[in-house]
Amino acid sequence: MLHVCTVHWHDERWVAPQLRYFRRFLPEYRVYASLNGIENRWPGEFAYAEDMPGPHHVKLNELAQIARRDASDDDLLLFIDSDAFPIAPIDTSVLGGTPLAAVRRDENMGEQQPHPCFCLTTVGFWFDIDGDWATGYKWRASNGQMVSDGGGNLLGILERLGIEWKPLLRSNVVDLDPLWFAVYGDVVYHHGAGSRPPVSFLGGLDARKAIAEAPEKAIIPSWVPLAGRAERSLRYRAAKRAYDRTVAEYARQSQQLSDEVFGWIESDPDFCQRFLRDPVP
Questions:
Q1: CA-CA distance, 23 to 218, in Å (whole number)?
Q2: Is 265 in the same domain as 144?
């Protein structure tokens, strides 16, 4: 038996596609879902479906506890985002001889943690290590900053215990976006930002850098008190306005592209091949 934990947030359009791919690629399974702001219109599809309170990681941890009531230690346990779904059969071979396999988004500033958009393990292992999806444990990002995100504490647990896990890395041949519309390990598709405006950290990176560097471009020396501060303030505000415009346009274009790809998901059962092979000239 495979037990699936997923959280859908105020957007029901991902429920039907995800369930469709579950039926296609999962062995015998049960789905435990937090349906926040979504009416359950899929009778018989969920072993558990409630509008659960709390942040994302709290819901995932609680859903695992609920799944445990119906599970044996050897059963598979799958955590998956609402806008993600399997694109190949999911069984113990995905683990690659390790106790846990998960997406690792190296492309997102060198993320190091198992990502909750797709993580496969066993019920027994998850509770043996007291698995936790919360942030907290930090690593050094590719820009040199110490950061944490969902799955941070899980990474800390695995490193503290010296447990090897299998990272599922981005396998796209075609990239419509550096972060979104990703296939990982040839077994899972993750749309990205399915339940929120599609703006990633990477999308505004250059504009944020321009804000940070704006005061350094001042002509008036900083030791000229009033004029120096005024020029630096003007440069900062101009860079901030440019950043806001850049992010707004990026969000608009990303939403347009996201809607187009969602149309592929709805109409083409093999849409992922568009990302896994070079387009025909």
A1: 60
A2: no
